[in-house]
């Protein structure tokens, strides 16, 4: 304490960082330290000798901590703002007379400038609001580019979705028609997902065109022990049974074998299935969605599809128009798939206006599947981040030229005919896979089995 000898208490109070004001028991300002001017942005002379209530009345502060202490007779802290725009926090400490511990002798007020803190708080709030907004957008974006999202900007496609959403709530059989790659499978799934009573149940797709008739019957309806050679002991549930309380999606229903059609019709009418080799019929709760890219009415007229089955399936027909008939969807789809492939390959490709013009004018015979493939191809093969119209033209020409280039024999080619034919075959297969999206679909389009396609594709590779 020796070293503090001679230290002036007022000097100390003048040199601290907080504003200090001393007022008397009547609320009149007795003393103000020098830091107060800086902290409040005001001038001490404007308040010295004045009652704090008057200082507030003159608008120097929005409220008085002195008044609060005089009322509460205890230490009080309040937020204040000064007319200079400072945000302050003030603590008033009552000092009582020695004789009467309830009688205030004077009040010491400490003030701290929290303008910067307030600003920081405000900025933080803004930043966290922006962050939340950004996260919401990202979430929206993530949901949109997630598999299963349906891009539908055109009125035609919005009408399709609206109808699908409406009929999802009832159990009527739906027949979705449209060219290959328009999104029939996607829409079938959408109907299932929109169906409140079924979305928790199974969605069971079956490609009726990809399975030979005898196998299709047991796949679809199941079989009992000993139904045929090689049948499993204990039998096997069919897909119809598996779809109980869910949706059975009969894809490529136009290919459904004529000889099995009466059984399917019977099941659809009754909701009851008898396994192959079995006798007892069991009832299941299954919603049927069928799809085809064939003209079923023409198949009916040609005697290749039963009229009664057609009418049973087409209770609610939904036609998805080809992409060239809903051009407004082309750019949103391009952006949607660009985002998907950019993420998948960790790239930052961008679409350019001339490319989008070219894509909008293109007729898209393979519909959305072709568009998705085209974007993926451009994304992975581009040399810069800008996808150009030239790349799209190149893709078209590569597609157009592929078959002729391979099928017209090169005059200088001396290799055996077998080798050259295998090469042409492989090119045709590669092109069919590009156009149809999968090996199975390509095999079907070319009228060969999947295993033949795979074998011939392999043989055609240059050795
Ligand atoms: N509107 C759309 N938005 C986003 N993706 C779509 C849309 N339509 C189709 N697709 C996508 O295009 C591809 C082909 O769609 P889908 O398999 O459903 O067509 P499809 O009509 O059933 O074809 P196919 O008759 O050849 O079986 C799928 O990858 C699907 O996710």
TrEMBL record:
Give the UniProt record's GO annotations in the biological process aspect. regulation of DNA-templated transcription
- Please verify whether the record's keywords include Zinc: no
Residues annotated as coiled-coil are 117-144
Residue stretches making up the Sigma-54 factor interaction domain: 150-380
Xref: InterPro entries: AAA+_ATPase, AAA_lid_NorR, Homeodomain-like_sf, HTH_Fis, P-loop_NTPase, PAS, PAS-like_dom_sf, PAS_fold
Keywords in UniProt for this one? ATP-binding, Coiled coil, Nucleotide-binding, Transcription, Transcription regulation
Give every PAS domain span: 12-50
Task: Cite the GO molecular-function annotations of the record.
Answer: ATP binding; sequence-specific DNA binding
The record ties this protein, via PANTHER family, to:
TRANSCRIPTIONAL REGULATORY PROTEIN
The protein here is known as Sigma 54-interacting transcriptional regulator
């Amino acid at each position: 304490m020796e070293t503090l000898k001679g230290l002036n208490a007022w000097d100390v109070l003048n040199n601290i960082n907080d504003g200090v004001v001393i007022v008397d028991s009547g609320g009149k300002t007795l003393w103000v330290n020098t830091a107060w001017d800086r902290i409040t942005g005001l001038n001490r002379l404007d308040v010295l000798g004045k009652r704090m209530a008057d200082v507030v009345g003159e608008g120097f502060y929005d409220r008085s901590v002195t008044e609060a202490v005089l009322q509460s007779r205890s230490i009080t802290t309040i937020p204040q703002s000064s007319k200079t725009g400072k945000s302050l926090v003030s603590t008033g400490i009552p000092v009582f007379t020695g004789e009467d511990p309830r009688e205030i002798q004077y009040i010491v007020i400490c003030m701290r400038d929290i303008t910067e803190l307030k600003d920081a708080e405000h900025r933080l709030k803004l930043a966290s609001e922006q962050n939340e907004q950004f996260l919401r957008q990202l979430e929206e974006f993530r949901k949109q580019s997630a598999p299963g999202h349906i891009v539908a900007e055109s009125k035609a496609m919005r009408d399709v979705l609206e109808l699908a959403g409406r009929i999802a709530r009832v159990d009527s059989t739906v027949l979705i028609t449209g060219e290959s790659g328009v999104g029939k499978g996607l829409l079938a799934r959408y109907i299932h997902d929109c169906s409140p009573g079924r979305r928790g149940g199974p969605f069971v797709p079956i490609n009726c065109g990809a399975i030979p008739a005898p196998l299709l019957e047991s796949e679809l309806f199941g079989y009992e022990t000993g139904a045929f050679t090689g049948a499993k002991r204990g039998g096997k549930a069919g897909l119809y049974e598996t779809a109980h309380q869910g949706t059975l999606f009969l894809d490529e229903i136009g290919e459904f074998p004529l000889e099995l059609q009466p059984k399917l019709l019977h099941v659809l009418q009754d909701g009851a299935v008898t396994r192959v080799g079995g006798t007892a019929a069991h009832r299941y709760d299954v919603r049927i969605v069928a799809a085809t890219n064939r003209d079923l009415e023409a198949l009916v007229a040609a005697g290749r599809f039963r009229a009664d089955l057609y009418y049973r399936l087409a209770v609610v027909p939904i036609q998805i128009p080809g992409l060239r008939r809903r051009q407004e969807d082309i750019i949103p789809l391009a952006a949607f798939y660009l985002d998907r492939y950019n993420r998948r390959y960790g790239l930052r490709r961008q679409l350019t206006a001339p490319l989008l013009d070219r894509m909008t004018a293109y007729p898209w015979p393979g519909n959305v599947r072709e568009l998705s493939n085209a974007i993926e191809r451009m994304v992975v093969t581009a040399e810069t981040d800008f996808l150009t119209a030239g790349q799209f033209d190149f893709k078209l020409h590569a597609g157009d030229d592929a078959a002729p280039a391979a099928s017209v024999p090169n005059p200088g080619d001396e290799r055996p005919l077998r080798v050259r034919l295998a090469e042409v075959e492989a090119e045709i297969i590669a092109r069919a896979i590009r156009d149809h999206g999968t090996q199975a679909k390509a095999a079907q389009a070319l009228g060969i089995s999947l295993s033949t396609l795979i074998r011939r594709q392999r043989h055609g590779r240059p050795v």
